[in-house]
């Protein structure tokens, strides 16, 4: 499976809350941006715990608009991000950029930036 296909599948599985399927696409040493508290969570178990906490208060939907490689061999995903609370109140409707690195055919790092160039 291509890296682009892995990313499209990961977004579809995340939005369906099929977290096991998303995590199966990750390297055991994954570093995942913590969009709620800052920094990164490390390893598959921490990613799962982070999402479990997130889903208790938020209902995020992330739709990839475009996926393209950058000049460093990473993948940059333009994402339309819409977040509701569990009462249905809109909290966020914005565009962000997720930058991915792969190792051994698996996602090993994800960063969040406000711009395509990776600068906030």
Question: Which terms would index this structure?
Answer:
single chain, 120 residues, alpha+beta, Nuclear Transport Factor 2, Chain: A, 6-stranded mixed sheet, NTF2-like_dom_sf, SnoaL-like, Nuclear transport factor 2 family protein
Question: Radius of gyration over alpha carbons?
Answer: 14 Å
End-to-end Cα distance, whole Å, is: 31 Å
The CATH class, by name, is Alpha Beta
Nearest-integer average pLDDT:
94
Q: DSSP helix count? A: 3
**CATH topology heading:** Nuclear Transport Factor 2, Chain: A
Number of strands: 6
DSSP helix fraction: 25-40%
Protein name: Nuclear transport factor 2 family protein
InterPro entries: NTF2-like_dom_sf, SnoaL-like
Pfam families: SnoaL_2
Domain SnoaL-like: 11-110
Written account of the structure:
The longest helix is centred in the middle third of the chain and has 14 residues, at about 45-55. Strands 2-1-6-5-4-3 form a 6-stranded mixed β-sheet, covered by helices on one side. The protein contains 3 helices and 6 strands. The mean pLDDT is about 95. With about 120 residues, the chain is of the alpha+beta class. It has one domain: Nuclear Transport Factor 2, Chain: A (Roll), CATH 3.10.450. This is Nuclear transport factor 2 family protein.
SSE blueprint:
Blueprint: H1 3-15, H2 19-23, E1 26-33, E2 40-42, H3 44-57, E3 58-69, E4 75-85, E5 90-103, E6 106-113
Parallel strand pairs: 1-6
Antiparallel strand pairs: 1-2, 3-4, 4-5, 5-6
Domain SnoaL-like: 11-110
Organism: Telmatobacter sp. DSM 110680
Protein name: Nuclear transport factor 2 family protein
């Amino acid at each position: 499976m291509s890296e682009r296909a892995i990313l499209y599948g990961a977004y579809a599985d995340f939005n369906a809350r099929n977290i096991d399927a998303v995590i199966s696409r990750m390297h055991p040493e994954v570093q995942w941006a913590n969009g709620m508290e800052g920094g990164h969570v490390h390893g598959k178990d921490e990613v799962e715990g982070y999402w479990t906490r997130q889903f208790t208060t938020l209902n995020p939907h992330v739709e990839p608009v475009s996926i393209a490689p950058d000049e460093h061999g990473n993948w940059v995903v333009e994402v339309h991000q819409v977040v509701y609370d569990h009462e249905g109140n809109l909290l966020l409707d914005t565009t962000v950029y997720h930058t991915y690195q792969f190792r051994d055919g698996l996602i090993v790092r994800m960063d969040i930036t406000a711009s395509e160039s990776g600068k906030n």
